[in-house]
């Protein structure tokens, strides 16, 4: 038996008297009294014994007596008396904290054995009341709250369940294991998403560090977390972030071992990467993904990715005829040939398909800006398969986003892709180019002279006449 009552975060309480012999003697006597039908008298005797052990600061004996009180009430199916004694024992003066913890842990085991839902909810409410604000039973309170939230969700009260679970700030619980903390946070995210509270879900997600998922034992939680993040960013329309989440799933061992999951994840990576607006990060990821050997399993998607890497114009009609059946319906119903949900027949799917067409147009405009210094608006519209007003609108968006440089002469109907340069800058550039040219000529002359000298040295002298 320990001589101290120790609770994490509290000062140790020294035991004054060892009451184990008294408890060993009296406890069977009082339990036998309850078996004879004298429950009230047995409980009164146990409460007196509990007072004696509590004042003696004997944590182990106090815990035994408190648990015995609960077991008598439970075995007699006196649920109201059970709830009353839980509150009574908790509120007693100088009650030992670890004894309360043992009592609460015992009471939690009775929840699944209650006769009906009303009794179960009453018991949970009683336990949540006595554990409120007590750091030494914070884990027990958290688990009770999660149980209550699950019950409310099954009743169809998703909003109420989410609000109940959001009361918990599990990230501040020092005694809770990291895995259990993450499980609670993921459950909070799930319930917030169920009630379409995307902002709250985003806030909760910041409490989970991605470094936690580096351990292979957390793969199930990693997949759950990134699926929640995908749902959040789908609502926000952040295609590049969705691509990153799928890429994190792609790097999970259990996914890489499952060919079907691997192919489906790669398809989503490619499509959301293409849908993301062009910038340095997107372009870098685009080129790195193209070199991935696993893309050979999904040749159609690899070819589509290549179209966006190659600086050539893409005809929307050709792209649509070539890739739309595969992207929307797939070439089969199962395995690697099944389609993704990116372009499904929903409002969001139609929006993503429209964005896909926009990305093709933007790629074509960047290609034109690379090869042309100026072009007529009418000709550019023909190449893009758009009207002149649509062409001007797309071009304006890219200019505002600083993706390309362009100026439009509306009177002449000409688009200039080369920026206007100051005469001084033009002269400096011409001078630099001229210097580079002269350096190349000088180096070339030197190399020619060197070759002539080597050739002359290696050539034997011609024989003279008479020899």
Keywords:
467 residues, mainly alpha, elongated, 3% strand, disordered N terminus
Q: Your description of this structure?
A:
This protein has a three-stranded antiparallel β-sheet with strand order 3-5-4. The protein has a two-stranded antiparallel ribbon with strand order 1-2. With 467 residues, the protein is mostly helical. The longest helix has 36 residues. The chain is built from 21 helices and five strands.
What's the helix and strand layout?
Layout (H helix, E strand, L loop, with lengths): L3 E2 L7 E2 L5 H16 L3 H17 L3 H17 L3 H13 L5 H12 L8 H15 L6 H17 L3 H9 L11 H17 L3 H8 L13 H18 L2 H12 L2 H4 L2 H17 L4 H11 L8 H11 L6 H13 L18 H25 L2 E3 H8 L3 H13 L6 E3 L4 E3 L6 H36 L9
Antiparallel strand pairs: 1-2, 3-5, 4-5
Nutshell version of this structure?
This protein is mostly helical and 467 residues long.
- Output the strand order for the largest sheet: 3-5-4
The overall average pLDDT, rounded, is 86
Low-confidence region ranges: 1-12
> What Rg, in angstroms, do the CA atoms define?
38 Å
Rough outline: elongated
- Measured as a percent range, the helix fraction is 55-70%
Q: What gap, in angstroms, lies between the N and C termini?
A: 122 Å
Tell me the series of helices and strands, N- to C-terminal.
EEHHHHHHHHHHHHHHHHHHEHHEEH
Structural class: mainly alpha
Strand coverage percent:
under 5%
Helix tally equals 21
Give the oligomer, counting copies of the same chain as homo and different chains as hetero. Answer: single chain
Strand element count = 5
Largest sheet: 3 strands, antiparallel
